[in-house]
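Can't attach files on this board, so I'm pasting raw text. These are the components:
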Amino acid sequence: MTLLAYENSHTLEVFLIIRCLIMNPFYERTKIEVFMKDKTVRLPRSLLSLGGNITDEKMPIWIQETIKAIMLPIAGLLLFLLIWGTGAQNINTSLGKFPGPTQALEQFNSLMSEHNNERIKEEAFYQRQDDRNSERLALDPNYQIKVRRYTGKPTFIDQTFTSLITVLTGFILASVIAIPFGIMIGLNKNIYAAANPIIQLFKPVSPLAWLPLVTMVVSAVYTSDDPLFAKSFVTSVITVLVCSIWPTVINTAVGTAAVSQDLLNVSKVLRLKPMTHVFKVVIPSAIPMVFTGLRLSLGIAWMVLIAAEMLAQNPGLGKFVWDEFQNGSSNSLGRIMVAVLVIGFIGFLLDRVMLMLQRMFSWDKQAILR
Amino acid sequence: MIKNSSLRLNTIRRSIMRSTLAIAAGAALSLSPITSISALAKTGYAEKEELKIGFIKLTDMAPLAIAYEKGFFEDEGLYVTLEAQANWKVLLDRVIDGQLDGAHMLAGQPLGATMGYGTKADIITAFSMDLNGNAITVSNSVWAEMKKNIPHKEGKPVHPIKADSLKPIIESYKDAGKPFKMGMVFPVSTHNYELRYWLAAGGIHPGYYAPHKGDTSGQIDADALLSVTPPPQMPATMEAGTIDGYCVGEPWNQQAVFKGIGVPVVTDYEIWKNNPEKVFGVSQKWANKNPNTHIRIVKAMIRAAQWLDANNNANRPEAVKILSQSNYVGADYDVIANSMTGTFEYEKGDKRDVPDFNVFFRHNATFPYYSDAIWYLTQMRRWGQISEPKSDDWYKDLAKKVYRPDIYASAAKELIAEGKVKMKDFPNFISETGFRSPQKHFIDNIVYDGNQPNTYLDKFSIGLKAKDKL
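---
Top answer:
Structure tokens for the assembled complex are below.
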């Protein structure tokens, strides 16, 4: 059952026509929503299960659902910790036993305290610098005071943020290029035919193959005495961009090309201008595919970045892992394990954020996203 | 008024500074004693205050870490960031293209680069970072065989262990059709030459280079095949069985002992007593642009070196603690301490006193001697990296182009004037020629005189002679 109600709708008209057109028996069963003043309001979920075949008399559904939603992941995690913990004890490396959960937690704490100590040192550094600057100003009144950034080591947290900023920059740049390009080749079969070989050729290339080329080109082309960004940052961003652009391009193109003929007809009937056509019909309809592409891209971007940082020794989590591996101290493996978990967790968070955005932008609030 | 005159004084001072430096550069290129420099005006402010200096994770990067941690760099108004590099090639390339202002380098790197072996670029050094500090380690299985050929006294192998004891093993490898492989860290590294020297002294041919024929593998006629592995990866590479032994700096020999994967057999102190090891290298272009900064860096590093050797290594435990931080060397305290605090552990449990295993300051360790540079050049010639015969003067001219005791002297004199170091700890800058008197104390007892590189080359039984060409 679908309830449609609207008041004074103007821009909504097109939408609603579309909606009516794509209605089908499957939608009928799952969709109960109200359209009001450009807003979609979802009705309580309980209305959905009026059919009643999943209810349990003793336990309300929501408790069942909560238990499933909370307990099952926890059980999975516990099982993983158990396997990790017991497995770790039985692996002897030349750097001692493989770190188990407790060692990883220990190293996590030590990384945090290192971070805090570094911040204290940083304050002292700025204090000394101020003293030195004022001393010099007394001797040399023409001296232009310049505050130099802290020269200490980047901590684990600093490295994490460096990686995050790098990956987001690369990803956003890639998206800015990929989405319009994808729409373009999706709309026009001829351009698609021309671009397709190039996309297919570059899509499977590993970041590690691009890296030396990117590094050399960046150091040759990007030269200035006072660069805004560090070369290593530019290299990482470009590598991320080149590798993560393809899923978005392809998915956007597919999504654009797959707009249903009915919608295209509607657009024709209403004689929409090209831009209106793109923004009101093509993009809304392609959005699920675009986001599928963006999520794939972001996942790839994150993986590529860690590899690139490791290989090129660019600041970030990848460098952290490599440095620890090189150190070969008895804590190294534990620290690497912390980094692995943090990398995984951040990858997960990034994906969740994309999913949230997808839900926000997608008109079809009922589509199952996972 | 006062403001104005002090300003003028400043500019005058700077111009004096500039002219003295020009004289200094001239003096270095002529054959006169290096430091005919008159009393120096105080070094001006640094031209570049924010610096990035590269290093490789080895204990002999200590002067840099100490200069940073003890605030010696900041005392000179320098804000230095120290950055570990992946390997010696990356480090050199980044100094050449300006991403690094300077770096902890192998003594052979500035010479090789200036000569054009590998990447061609003018690199100079005004500061020698340490003496000794390397060792040769072999895998457990090789050691088990070697041990049978070594005389024992009171249940312990007699040192120094010569490569003669390794020779039968290499022959058995040859009979079995297996290559005997060893790792070193870079084609122009001190380790390469020390390993070659040790092998050749025991009658094992380490192989020739022939760059004029495009062969830079260094394995022509070789009994033992030498290849490049970055220092921190040595233990792992040997553990994987890719190499049977290696020559590297600390802590990577002690790491093998701790991990139980190999046994250090000989230190470079035993191969050549008090051999020069790392230098602080900058590009010539950078040095021309930042003369004051360069002197200031050297000042900070002289103080750091002095601190490291002060009171019979009393500060070493503290230094080890600093080095064991993950951003410097990062190995465990115990591993680094084993070689940095005056001892060296060979076979597990066989810990011996080697007080001079790492020398940072005493014995004029920081002074860039021309004769040290020339020794490395003779070894490059001996193994074919320099393919053509060269005159004695060629060796001396190249050494004088790369090694810059004049800059060192300016820094040291200023520190003496500031009362931070003592004059007796330095060579006599007026009469010092930059050539050490003929050095004995090599494992094969051949005497080295830096003034006669070609005569020296003719003394070896294995290796190219002065006039040989492949």
